[in-house]
């Protein structure tokens, strides 16, 4: 296995995990990366760097981020975010994989990419539900801000330092599980 392939797998996994925080933020960062040539995407994903894709993903990102700052709307979004994050995580992983056997690419994308995104999204949904239950939704904008910062940080780190992004993802997942454990005890 080549070093480039390992880096692309880590990149895809990290972007997929970021999709668990916000579905469109890592897609927008990948689009910017492809547009400016910061990281090459799979040949079939060249379209993601186009200006129309940048505009569409930028608008979608703004709506998603803004909607999560509205208490109760954020909980409604959580009902669809886990499956959407899993799909986005799978696609992000596929987009970053090089020219390897499609069977391996899709298996890895579904298991690692979709799994990472779904796990993070499930954790954030549980955190927000706990916040809603304990504060009546008053603290939800703080949770939303933290998730948006995490999605942006992991996405940008994924492009410029995939190993650092992987470390950040693992730390955030551990931190998220600690919060959920505390909320369950309370």
Which structural traits does this protein have?
186 residues; mainly alpha
Describe the overall structure:
This protein is an all-alpha fold and 186 residues long. The protein contains seven helices and no strands. Helix 2 (24-36) packs antiparallel against helix 3 (51-67) and helix 6 packs antiparallel against helix 7 (162-185). The termini are far apart. The relative contact order is 0.19.
Helices and strands in order, then pairings?
Blueprint: H1 3-21, H2 24-36, H3 51-67, H4 73-96, H5 102-135, H6 140-160, H7 162-185
Helix pairs in contact: 1-2, 1-4, 1-5, 1-6, 1-7, 2-3, 2-6, 4-5, 5-6, 5-7, 6-7
Report a brief summary of the structure.
The chain is mainly α and about 190 residues long.
- The total of beta strands comes to 0
Which residues form runs of ≥5 with pLDDT under 50? none
Number of helices: 7
Largest sheet: none
Structural class: mainly alpha
Cα end-to-end separation: 47 Å
Taking all residues together, what is the mean pLDDT? 90
Order of helices and strands: HHHHHHH
Overall number of structural domains: 1
What is the CA-based Rg, rounded? 16 Å
Globular, elongated, flat, extended or rod-shaped: what is the shape? globular
Roughly what percent helix? over 70%
Strand coverage percent: under 5%
Protein name: Membrane protein
InterPro entries: DUF4126 (IPR025196)
Keywords: Membrane, Transmembrane, Transmembrane helix
Pfam family, one: DUF4126
């Amino acid at each position: 296995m080549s070093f480039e392939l390992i880096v692309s797998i880590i990149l895809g996994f990290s972007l997929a995990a970021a999709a668990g925080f916000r579905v469109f933020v890592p897609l927008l960062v990948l689009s910017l990366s492809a547009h400016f040539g910061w990281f090459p995407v799979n040949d079939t994903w060249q379209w993601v760097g186009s200006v129309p894709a940048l505009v569409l993903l930028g608008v979608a990102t703004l709506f998603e981020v803004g909607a999560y700052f509205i208490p109760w709307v954020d909980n409604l979004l959580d009902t669809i975010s886990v499956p959407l994050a899993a799909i986005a995580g799978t696609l992000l992983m596929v987009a970053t994989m090089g020219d390897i056997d499609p069977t391996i690419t899709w298996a890895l994308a579904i298991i690692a990419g979709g799994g990472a995104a779904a796990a993070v999204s499930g954790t954030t949904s549980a955190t927000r539900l706990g916040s809603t239950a304990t504060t009546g939704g008053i603290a939800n904008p703080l949770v939303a801000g933290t998730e948006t910062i995490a999605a942006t940080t992991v996405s940008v780190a994924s492009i410029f330092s995939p190993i650092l992004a992987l470390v950040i993802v693992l730390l955030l997942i551990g931190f998220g599980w600690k919060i959920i454990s505390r909320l369950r005890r309370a």
